[in-house]
Amino acid sequence: MKYQYIGLDEINGPLIFLENIKDVGFEEVVTIELKNGERRKGRVIQIDGDKVAIQVFEGTTGLSLENSKTTFTGEPMKIDLSKEILGRTFNGSGEPIDGLGDIFSEVRYDINGSPLNPVSRVYPRNYIHTGISSIDTLTTLIRGQKLPIFSSSGLSHNELATQIVKQAKLSDSEDSEFCIVFAAMGVKHDVANYFRQAFEEADVMSRVVMFVNIANDPIIERILTPRCALTAAEYLAYEKNMHVLVILTDMTAYCEALREFSSSKGEIPGRKGYPGYLYSDLSSLYERAGIIKSAKGSVTQIPILTMPNDDITHPVPDLTGYITEGQIVLSKELHQKGVYPPVNILPSLSRLMKDGIGSKYTRADHQDLANQLFASYARVQEAKSLASVIGEDELNEVDHAYLVYGNYFDNYFLSQGNENRSIDETLNLGWDLLSLLPKSELSRLDQKTIEEFYDSNRAQVRFKINNSKISDEIISKGKMNE
């Protein structure tokens, strides 16, 4: 039953308060009618006895304490869903903004989602191909995983997100349907237009569902945006049996909105002013990824966040790292050197990677190759540190070889521009890089694998012909006699 109340008791920022309210539920949607007939939506976010606090989506400007009419609908916020949402663009509240009209819905789902029974979950297997070497080889994205990207202000995370949308796919041998749900929170108009135009020009918009919250939109809508996006993803995955990749950018903007909203409610702040329930709030979003027994589809998440002051211990990346299954960290140093995408592989990892690669999914040598590439790149950093102390000319031949390997790794393996590489191309490139090192340094590989893939002549020819960034002098210093 719907109840209507005339007048308000208090207005505070984006919140209105009413007293003597009965039979109202938490998260219930309300309609507020202004004196001039304008209607706005809100939801109940706090109940204290017979007093309720209501969050107004469009803001409280123009509301009157005496003449506003508040109607309680008796149900939580829901969005219209059907397979027609593919190729469409919505605002943060799930309303179409692309001028193509309303959605002819099959169902209406609560944006807060339905809790997944842990017993019904299926362990994530297999991978999603992104075409990006540093991700596919060293931090492989597994279906049903939540793998965030930690970036900083000024880095190319928007370009990376766009490239992933363009290139992401299932393996060529599968006939399952694949789509992407893309949610942008607190972005500027030019960034939102960049995303939309890039998807249309790449002819991938037909498999993308976009939710866009502009920076000057109400902060309340920013809090709803990821929930609407994840609800759409769950519908496509669990009702339509599609494999869905959800990209959420920028989660820091979401958390800033949550902090502002918490402050307006008068809640006691936690670390850095964020609400004490930030961990559980982020969990309610990130844990909406996975695979369940009753459906053939999956929901995979890539949340993107910018670390304030490049601080990885800041509450947002810190809590995100606790909840998710790894992270991809972007580097300012690599970005300044012109490397794109500037993925810093040493602090990056994918905790589920080992279960979705190998002979069944990618290639039998994938795991051992990734271990050796990572270990060798770590040794590069040691060689660089030593060179900064004693000078590069004083390094021995092995350390010179690692410097050459590191340069080629940055300029070939990491820096690929907008190239879309297959998994075989990426793995073969990794072997070419390892072939710049002496066999004695490949301690993470067994002899049989080395004999099958190691070829120092092929590596030297390939890099000498194609690379203009590294001088012959440095190459010659890195040569080793076997």
What does this structure look like?
Residues 10-74 form the ATPase F1/V1/A1 complex alpha/beta subunit N-terminal domain. Residues 131-350 form the ATPase F1/V1/A1 complex alpha/beta subunit nucleotide-binding domain. Pfam families: ATP-synt_ab, ATP-synt_ab_N, ATP-synt_VA_C. This protein is of the alpha/beta class and 482 residues long. It folds into three domains: 3-76, Beta Barrel (Thrombin, subunit H), CATH 2.40.10.170; 79-355, Rossmann fold (3-Layer(aba) Sandwich), CATH 3.40.50; 366-478, no CATH class. Helix content is 35%, strand content 22%. The protein has 14 helices and 19 strands. It has helices at 133-138, 157-167, 189-201, 219-238, 251-264, 278-286, 315-323, 332-336, 366-390, 397-414, 423-434, 447-453, 456-466, 472-478; strands spanning 3-6, 10-12, 15-18, 28-33, 39-48, 51-56, 69-76, 78-81, 89-91, 107-110, 121-122, 149-151, 178-187, 208-214, 243-249, 291-292, 298-306, 326-330, 343-350. Strands 9-14-13-15-17-12-18-19 form an eight-stranded mixed beta sheet, with helices on both faces. A seven-stranded antiparallel beta sheet has the order 1-7-4-5-6-3-2, with no helix packed on it. A two-stranded antiparallel ribbon has the order 8-10. Helix 4 packs across helix 5, helix 6 crosses helix 7 (315-323) and helix 9 (366-390) crosses helix 11. The radius of gyration is 26 Å and the shape is elongated. 44% of the residues are buried.
